[in-house]
Inverse folding.
């Protein structure tokens, strides 16, 4: 958990506390995947599975390891996990300025569905809401 928290601190201006991350281990709705590179945690992705929807909570890759398709692999694996779990759709929020992440999510079928005004506490930046329909109803 220390390594996951280091990734969290590196990636986010308003990071989750170590306690919040630890609490997620007790959350029956939560699923997390980590990227392990030679025994070192360099990234992670989390999701809450609620009925037939998945809400991605965090996608993070330590800045020292970006550009190596680690985030791509994490998103791919989470989409596959959701399909296996019978999830119909996935959603997430992404910073309006984070076009790299938006493009990654589009690669896996996510589409813009709306805006959350001033969603991020650190600078009141808007979030783009994205959805991915994995299955038809």
């Amino acid at each position: 958990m220390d390594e996951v928290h280091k990734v969290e601190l590196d990636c986010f201006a308003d990071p989750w506390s170590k306690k919040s991350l630890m609490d997620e281990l007790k959350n029956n709705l939560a699923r997390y995947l980590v990227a392990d590179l030679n025994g070192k945690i360099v990234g992670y992705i989390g999701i809450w599975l609620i009925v037939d929807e998945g809400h991605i909570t965090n996608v993070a890759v330590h800045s020292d390891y970006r550009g190596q398709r680690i985030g791509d692999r994490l998103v791919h694996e989470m989409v596959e996990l959701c399909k296996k779990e019978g999830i119909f759709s996935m959603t997430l929020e992404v910073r309006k300025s984070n076009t790299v992440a938006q493009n990654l999510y589009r690669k896996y079928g996510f589409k813009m569905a709306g805006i959350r005004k001033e969603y991020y506490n650190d600078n009141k930046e808007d979030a783009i809401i994205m959805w991915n329909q994995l299955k038809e109803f």
